[in-house]
Amino acid sequence: MDEQEQVERTGVTRRRVLSGAALFGLGAGADRLLGGFGGGSSLKAVSSEANEGSVPFYGAHQGGIATPAQEYLHFAAFDVTSDVPEALRALLQQWTAAAASLTAGEPYQSPVKPELGQVPLETGEAIGLGPSRLTLTFGFGPSLFSSGRLGLGGRRPPELAPLPAFQGDNFEAARSEGDLCVQACAEDPQVAFHAIHVLSRIANGTAVLRWAQPGFGRTSSTSTEQTTPRNLMGFKDGTDNIRAEQTDAMRDYVWVQDADGPPWMVGGSYLIARRIRIIFDVWDATTLEGQQRVIGRDKLAGAPLGERNEYDPVDLNAMSNGEQVIPANAHIRLANPTNNDGQRILRRGYSYSEGVEPESGEIDAGLFFIAFQRSPKRQFIPLQRRLAASDALNHHTLHTSSAIFAIPPGLNSPGGFIGEGLFAS
Ligand code: HEM
Question: pTM above the 0.90 mark?
C-alpha cells in the first residue's frame, strides 16, 4: 500500500502522513510525491523540516571542504574503464544530477517505488534518514590525464602530480591513487554509504570502484562553531586548523586562485588523502608524559605544553631547565607554519577502524588523513617531507595508502556539471 492509499483507507490525518513523509526521507521531493493532498503551507513546513540539516549543493566551491565537517565519511576512488571522453562527460553529468538530489535528501530517482518487474534505480537504504547534511565532493586523479587516455593528456594541472615517495611510506597499492574520487560526508554513515553505492551504480560501464574507505568521528574542526574532537590517540585534533570563517586563510591556503591556473581549477582545491595506521601496541605502552611530548600538547586540555588552555598560543621558544618545552621532534613543532615557510593546510580527516591486521593481530585503525590545499608543491609535500624525516609520531604510525586529486570548483546553479571546465575548448 502506498502512502496515498493508506490515507484513503485509514483516514490517517494529513499531519501524520506528512511526518511519515519526513520519516521516509523524501525531503523536498515529498512535495511532489504527495502533490495531490493540497494544504501547501503545511506541506512546505514539513518539507523544510525534513530538509533541516541539508548543505546547499550549489555554490562557488564544492561542499565538503569549507562546510562544517560531519561525523561520518565514505570515501571512494574510481578507475575509468572507458576511453571515450564523451562517456566521462556523461558520467560527470549524471553524478552531478544525482548529487544535487541526494544532498537535498531526495531519492536518487523518483518514483521511489518502481513496478515489481523493474530493477529499482534508487537502492533504498537511505529512505527515512533525511539529508543528514550530506556533502559530495568530486575530484580527478593524475592518472586520468595519462597521455593516450581520454585525450586529456595536455590538461593536467601542474600541481596534480603523483606524490613523491616519503620516508617510511608503506603503501598497499590497491588502496592508493585512482582516476576519480568522491568524498561523501554525512551525519549518518548509511547516508554516506548510500551516496557512494548509488554513484558507483551510475558509473557502471564507464568507471569501476578502485577502493573505498569508511570513516567515523571527524578529527578536525572546519568551522569556529565546532568544538575540537579527539582522534583515536585520545588527543584533541584540529585545534590549529584553518576554519571556514578565516576567509583570508581560505584564499591564501585552500582555494586555487586566478594566478595559479588552469582556469577550470580556479575556486577548486587539491585533496590529499593518507591512510595512517596507529601502532597501538607501542602507543598504548607509552607514558602520558611521553605521549604528550610526541604531540607537543597536553592530552586532556589540548593546551600546548607549558600553557593551560587549548587555544593558548604555541610558544616554540619556551625553555624550562635548559630544555625546549615543546620537544624538537614534537608533531606540532614540525607541523607549525613557522617551520614550513608560513604555509598551512585545511585538515578534514576521519578516524577509521577495520578489524584486525591478520599477520600481527593488531587493530587496523587510525586516521584517514584528508587535507585540502591550494598548492601541494608548496604545502603538503614539504610539510610531509619534514614530518616523515623526524616527527616523533612516526614511531607510532604507518602510512598505508596515499592519493591526490584535483577538486574542481563548485557549480553556481543548475544547468552545468561538476568538472565541466575540463572539457571546455
Ligand atoms: C596519525 C597521524 C596524525 C595524528 C594522530 C595527528 C595529530 C595531530 C594533533 C593532535 C595535532 C594538534 C592539534 C591541532 O592543532 O590540530 C596536530 C596538528 C597538526 N597536524 Fe597532525 N596528526 C597526524 C598526521 C599529520 C599529517 C600527515 C600532517 C601533514 C602532512 C599533519 C599536519 C598537522 C598540522 C599542520 C597541524 C597544526 C600545526 C600548527 O598549526 O601548529 N598531521 N596533528
Answer: no
